[in-house]
Task: inverse folding
């Protein structure tokens, strides 16, 4: 009996030792149904098929557009001040502004020939403009033309095999449509953010003379200016221009210039070096009850004219102070911004029909607009 017990104890000891050795060195040899040390039962997702895209992903739109979005670095030489060379001034105040000023923005390649759309404020006053492509190539850009009234500029670089963005139709956008903003915020490198169209036709913001902004909640930050706002197909819908912010960072209210506007401006700058706009020589104001009473006009909608330039196109056609313009070339206008845009779209020298309310009498007056003077930043038409 004692011998059997000894044999059992020795066998158990050997088996237990073998178990611990196997559990330590080869835990996978332990039975699948057993509880091995450190093993956790999990459910793993099947490996995705090669080239598949997750549902709801905006990857294709980002990949299609991102290569055509560039970073823009600008430098501006410091202009010497009246005391720059004064040794006593330099002794007390140091070299004021001795370093050149640097700027940062974004742009969009819109032509295989190297044309780039960006904001005027990105390149304004720059002595040197460097464009950095997404593939790390660099090139010095020259300015083809600028349009401060819409805050747009066209640059050109000389490189081969340039990626080009596809221009979309911004007139088809609706509130709620998904969009992506692509640019180089804060100089951290190309960044893609997503959001929706929050509003269309934003104006009277005091940013540009001619305003018809797309509003989006896609994050736009300093450095994004001049970058692309694209739809879910990767087509260009706007040029990111400005943000509403109390802190300097994104607060979910960004503004982009529609590509329909940008295209017209670009064509004018490339063809003529400037944008030719209509002008009639009036001082417009928002129609208020006080102004309506002052001029004795019965209109409730439109733009009231409080001043007319002597011998200007409007004066020659018979428009007077106190007239309320309600439509231009069959396009209704309800505020100053709409009137500015409608008149600017007219072809200089070609008469257009203006619908006018004079006191309680409606009139149709044909006005042949002139060419809008440049530069002119004040909202006078």
Result:
């Amino acid at each position: 009996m004692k011998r059997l017990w000894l044999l059992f104890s020795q066998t158990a000891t050997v088996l237990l030792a073998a178990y611990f050795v196997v559990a330590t060195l080869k835990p996978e040899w332990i039975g699948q149904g057993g509880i091995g040390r450190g093993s956790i039962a999990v459910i793993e997702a099947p490996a995705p098929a090669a080239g598949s895209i997750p549902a709801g992903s905006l990857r294709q739109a980002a990949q299609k557009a991102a290569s055509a979005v560039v970073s823009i670095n600008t430098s501006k030489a410091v202009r010497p001040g009246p005391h720059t060379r004064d040794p006593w001034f330099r002794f007390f105040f140091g070299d004021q502004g001795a370093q050149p000023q640097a700027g940062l923005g974004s742009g969009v390649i819109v032509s295989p020939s190297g044309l780039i759309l960006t904001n005027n404020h990105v390149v304004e006053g720059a002595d040197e403009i460097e464009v950095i492509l997404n593939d790390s190539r660099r090139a010095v850009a020259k300015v083809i033309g600028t349009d401060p009234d819409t805050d747009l500029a066209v640059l050109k670089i000389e490189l081969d095999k340039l990626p080009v963005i596809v221009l979309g139709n911004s007139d088809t956008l609706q509130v709620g449509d998904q969009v992506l903003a692509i640019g180089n915020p804060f100089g951290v490198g190309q960044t893609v953010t997503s959001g929706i169209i929050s509003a269309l036709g934003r104006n009277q913001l005091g940013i540009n003379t001619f305003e018809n902004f797309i509003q989006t909640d896609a994050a736009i930050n300093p450095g994004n200016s001049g970058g692309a706002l694209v739809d879910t197909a990767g087509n260009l819908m706007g040029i990111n221009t400005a943000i509403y912010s109390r802190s300097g960072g994104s607060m979910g209210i960004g503004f982009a210039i529609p590509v329909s506007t940008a295209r017209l401006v670009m064509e004018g700058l490339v063809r003529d070096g400037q944008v030719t706009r209509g002008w009639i020589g009036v001082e417009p104001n928002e129609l208020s009850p006080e102004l309506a009473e002052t001029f004795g006009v019965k209109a409730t909608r439109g733009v009231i004219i409080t001043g007319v330039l002597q011998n200007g196109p409007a004066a020659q056609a018979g428009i007077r102070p106190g007239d309320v313009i309600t439509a231009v070339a069959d396009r209704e206008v309800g505020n100053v911004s709409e009137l500015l845009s409608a008149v600017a779209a007219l072809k200089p020298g070609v008469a257009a029909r203006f619908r006018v309310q004079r006191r309680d009498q409606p009139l149709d007056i044909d006005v042949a607009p002139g060419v809008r003077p440049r530069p002119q930043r004040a909202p006078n038409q």
